[in-house]
Amino acid sequence: MSTMYTSFPEDFLWGGATAANQLEGGFDAGGKGLSTADVITAGTHTISRRITPVLEAGSNYPSHEAVDFYHRYKEDIALFAEMGFKVFRLSIAWSRIFPNGDDAQPNEEGLQFYDQVFAELKKHQIEPLVTISHYEAPFHLAEAYNGWADRRTIDFYVRYCEVIFNRYKDSVKYWLTFNEINILTMPFGTFMAGAIMPQGNAELGTSAAGDNEQLRYQALHHQFLASAKAVKLGHTINENFQIGCMIAYMCSYPLTCNPEDVLLAQRKDNLSNFLCSDVQVRGAYPGFATRYFKEKNIELQQEAEDGQTLRDGCVDFYTFSYYSSTCVSAAPDQEAIGGNLSMGLKNPYLQASAWDWQIDPQGLRWSLNHIYNRYGIPMMVVENGLGAVDTVETDGSIQDGYRIDYLREHVKTMGEALEDGVELIGYTPWGCIDLVSAGTGEMKKRYGFIYVDKDNEGNGTLDRSRKDSFYWYKNVIASNGTQLD
């Protein structure tokens, strides 16, 4: 058994990550209202999901049942505890607390559900890491206000925060205001992250009227303000709260040493990654954002107090998702390849997953150093993992050595980043239990240590079983990252 290094801190937060709309199910149970995720149909590896504002009979809406954590949370948390989790990243479904978003009073039954979840986590000595808004909002806010395009949504969000901060102030220490907030810099995030209504029955990330970049950045500005107000409010309610941002970090290398490629990679890094975190960590828009808005004729509607609000609401720590890397080039006709939320160019030095995400553990070390050198605040990797097709053998085993190989190399590079001086405090691989894919609604694309018996069409027993990676990760946690075989 190999010992790689002994650099992980004794209080390092090992765990796993999920999201309510991909995990919970119970979409109409316990007084929950319809969310934006609840009106998105399933897709496949190659076919986009559709947004259907009126639910269609016979269509498959993956979030409606998901993997039924709503009824099975005790079983699932017990499995997390068996692996030795120190932390569990989950999200609260906003529409379970405020069914319409603008309700006068919160839904007590929804609040009680999370009371029970947090009590179960406490029983097993697992720290919750709660994402307040993870790719869903009450659908009524989308229909009545056009979601985050309307400034009034800030107040609805802050009131939601006030309720959950007060309710769970003794149960939750770590909070994230928005999941992958930078997705709104891309058309794909318009409805999924911004709750901005498409025209007609549209595919996810598109609109019959075309992309409206002005509207996306206005919605993003409103989310920045909501996040800042939540940070300030949370610190008032409990001074021990730690409230962070969450970025979908898109690691992009210049394809060549051509200065045009280097500048293009820097520009993508700035606009895709650092625009959002600069606002949330430093409290102001960076200069490159001001130039971009000017060049694109984007004029944000701001009020006089907005600048001070952003300065007063800087986050305490930085979290991000990291799955893969891509390349960029100023030269035309280069070979493209997939990646997390965006396309890039193929790196000839890397292998790719079945979903064309390039596997690059060294990119995680580079990203950790790159981000920490900019901000110098505590960091967590709150999503990382390999989406793959898993096979249940005749003896019931799931031999996912490919997932172990992927995770092992990424844990190694986290250790190297710690040796580099990065203040990394936690690691929560994505989809620690199999759940619905956010991009396509598939079950076929699995990430978990725990297998869930369900297929793309929603068939299956929902029974849970342990994969080989379950036992591997249990040993990683028990050894605090020193034993990786």
From TrEMBL:
Domain of life: Bacteria
GO MF term list: beta-glucosidase activity
Database matches in InterPro entries: GH, GH_1_N_CS, Glyco_hydro_1
Gene Ontology CC: one annotated term: cytosol
Keywords: Glycosidase, Hydrolase
Any Pfam family matching the protein: Glyco_hydro_1
Keyword Cell membrane annotated: no
PROSITE patterns xrefs: GLYCOSYL_HYDROL_F1_2 (PS00653)
Keyword Chaperone: no
One record GO biological process: carbohydrate catabolic process
Similarity comment: Belongs to the glycosyl hydrolase 1 family.
Protein's UniProt name: Amygdalase
Provenance organism: Paenibacillus borealis
Phylogenetic placement of the source organism: Bacteria, Bacillati, Bacillota, Bacilli, Bacillales
